[in-house]
């Protein structure tokens, strides 16, 4: 009985988030938001987030200091980010008929990125720069 109690006490949200380190990568958040947006679960368009994520992914994956992935894997990440951007473009412009500049979506994008930065600081105790340009470059 005591072992079960210890297991239940140790299985909390901090432990779960620490084990699944992929949740720290912002692109995964954008992929989930894109899925939710495309199937009309949310009205907020992650177009701006996916555009800047593609720019960042190109720079990050073409950086010669990044030794984490093979060239094929890096190319796949960039292509997948491009696909996510194209899905958001299709939904944003051609299905929802939104304009290029949508103040509400820009505001929500800033808020989501701010939440992500807080998430990194609280659960990993790192800044965006420390996580991406120090930890992931190893």
Secondary structure: elements and pairs:
Blueprint: H1 2-10, H2 13-19, H3 26-38, H4 47-62, H5 71-95, H6 103-123, H7 128-135
Helix pairs in contact: 3-4, 3-5, 4-5
Keywords:
138 residues, mainly alpha, 7 helices, 72% helix, globular, disordered N terminus
Describe this structure in words.
This protein is mostly helical. Helices cover about 70% and strands about 0% of the residues. The protein has seven helices and no strands. It has helices at about 1-10, 15-20, 25-40, 45-60, 70-95, 105-125, 130-135. Helix 3 (about 25-40) runs parallel beside helix 5. The protein is globular.
- Along the chain, the helix and strand elements come as HHHHHHH
> Radius of gyration over alpha carbons?
18 Å
The low-confidence runs, each spanning 5 or more residues with pLDDT under 50, are: 1-8
- Secondary-structure-derived class: mainly alpha
Taking the sheet with the most strands, its summary is: none
Helix content: over 70%
**Separation of termini?**
43 Å
Number of beta strands? 0
Shape: globular
**SS element count, helices:** 7
Rounded mean pLDDT score: 86
Percent of sequence in beta strands: under 5%
Brief overview, please?
The chain is mainly alpha-helical and 138 residues long. It is built from 7 helices and no strands.
């Amino acid at each position: 009985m005591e072992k079960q109690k210890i297991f239940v006490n140790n299985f909390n949200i901090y432990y779960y988030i620490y084990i699944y380190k992929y949740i720290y990568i912002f692109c995964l958040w954008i992929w989930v938001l894109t899925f939710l947006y495309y199937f009309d679960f949310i009205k907020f368009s992650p177009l701006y987030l996916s555009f800047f994520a593609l720019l960042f992914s190109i720079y990050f994956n073409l950086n010669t200091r990044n030794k984490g992935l093979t060239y094929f894997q890096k190319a796949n990440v960039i292509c997948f980010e491009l696909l996510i951007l194209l899905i958001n473009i299709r939904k944003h412009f051609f299905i929802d008929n939104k304009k290029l500049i949508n103040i509400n979506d820009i505001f929500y994008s800033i808020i989501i990125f701010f939440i992500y930065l807080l998430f990194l600081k609280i659960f990993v105790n790192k800044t965006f720069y420390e996580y991406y340009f120090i930890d992931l470059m190893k």
